[in-house]
Design goal:
With about 350 residues, this protein is α/β, with parallel strands linked by helices. It has helices spanning about 10-20, 40-45, 55-60, 75-85, 100-115, 130-140, 180-190, 265-270, 295-305, 315-335; strands spanning about 1-5, 25-35, 50, 65-70, 90-95, 120, 145-155, 195-205, 215-220, 225-230, 240-245, 250-255, 275-280, 285, 340. The chain is built from ten helices and 15 strands.
Length: about 350
């Protein structure tokens, strides 16, 4: 059983604890640290039997902790992963991994040197529907892949206070890219391979905070297929991911992590309606399995930390995902097509 500390106890950090506490036989949370200790946080740690640590450094030094789970601002990830590795702690990092390729390379180098496991919170990759879609692509059932596209929306930015860390462009560049869109980018990398270049436009229409709310991105993969991703942070919630091939298309729909929704919904309802339309034949429709994706993801991390199967997202994919994020942010600023470094 991996003994973990949660670092960052906002609504998503608490959701991660709720996903495994008392339900997983591979990982449990024994402590937590957060920048802001509120009565809500104090009640939460008491409810889930956690020790409340004074800061991140205390978690690094605690010998009763095997692993750190980071649910912290994106700009802190690289330094925290490196510090955790140097302290001999396995480390699970919420997405996005880092905002630049160099930071990702530095963090991965530290993890490799320390010989600890590294997990990354792209939990949608672990759903059976994504596994099924991956198999359809690799088996040739969809034929030659032409295009992949995704749309991810939620209303969260409409309700953010200016003091919240997500309300600042340096933490959430390109609007909904970092809180939502990077999930779809990871899905494209997983299913279609490395991304060669991107073009992005991102701007603010409706929100009052200093952050974009409408972002659209075009991709070209090294293997030739194209891609599109749209994110909006000031409209109704929704998620769609669709792959088009020369033998048919598959569309997966679901929800996004809407702040204020129940923990159970945020964890288990990420996939819903699914459809497959072959070139020849009738449309097939079905409902996705209800599955606690954060628990599955953390269990996979715990397995790797315990010396079992490696974490399914490779270090190379983690670094490439950060490189793509960096290129998107740069394109949104320059208005030009940007190569992925």
């Amino acid at each position: 059983m991996i003994r973990a500390a949660i670092v960052g106890m906002g609504w998503w950090g608490r959701t991660l604890v709720e996903s495994v506490q008392g339900a997983s036989d591979q990982i449990r949370f024994v402590a937590g640290a957060t920048r802001t200790v509120s009565p809500e946080v104090e009640a939460f740690v008491k409810q889930h039997g956690l020790r409340l640590l004074p800061d991140f450094e205390a978690a690094l030094a605690d010998k009763e902790i095997d692993a750190l789970v980071l649910s912290t601002p994106h700009s802190m990830h690289a330094a925290q992963v490196i510090a955790a590795a140097k302290a001999g702690k396995h480390v699970f990092c919420e997405k996005p991994f880092t905002l630049t390729k160099q930071e990702a390379e530095d963090a991965v180098a530290a993890v490799k040197k320390a010989g600890v496991a590294l997990g990354l919170g792209y939990n949608r990759r672990f759903h059976p529907e994504m596994n099924r879609l991956r198999q359809q692509i690799r088996s040739g059932e969809l034929g030659m892949i032409l295009h992949v596209e995704a749309t991810m929306t939620f209303p969260n930015a409409l309700f953010l206070k200016p003091s919240h860390w997500r309300a600042h462009k340096d933490e959430t560049p390109a609007g909904g890219l970092t809180p939502m869109g990077v999930h779809a980018v990871d899905g494209m990398i997983d299913l279609c391979g490395p991304i060669d270049h991107v073009y992005a436009q991102s701007f603010r229409r409706a929100v009052e905070i200093d952050a974009d709310d409408t972002t659209s991105i075009l991709f070209r993969m090294k293997d030739g297929m194209s891609g599109y991703l749209g994110t909006m942070t000031a409209t109704g919630p929704g998620f769609s991911f669709q792959v088009f091939g020369s033998k048919g298309w598959v569309r997966l729909e679901g929800v996004t992590h809407v702040a204020g929704a129940s923990s159970e919904e945020r964890r288990t309802r990420l996939f819903g309606n699914c459809r497959f339309q072959p070139v020849k034949g009738e449309l097939k429709s079905w409902q996705a399995e209800t599955l606690d994706l954060p628990r599955v993801t953390l269990d996979a991390f715990a397995t790797a930390a315990s010396g079992g199967a490696p974490y399914p997202i490779s270090h190379e994919e983690m670094i490439h995902g950060s490189a793509v994020t960096e290129a998107i942010v740069r394109s949104a600023k320059t208005g030009a097509v940007e190569r992925v470094p």
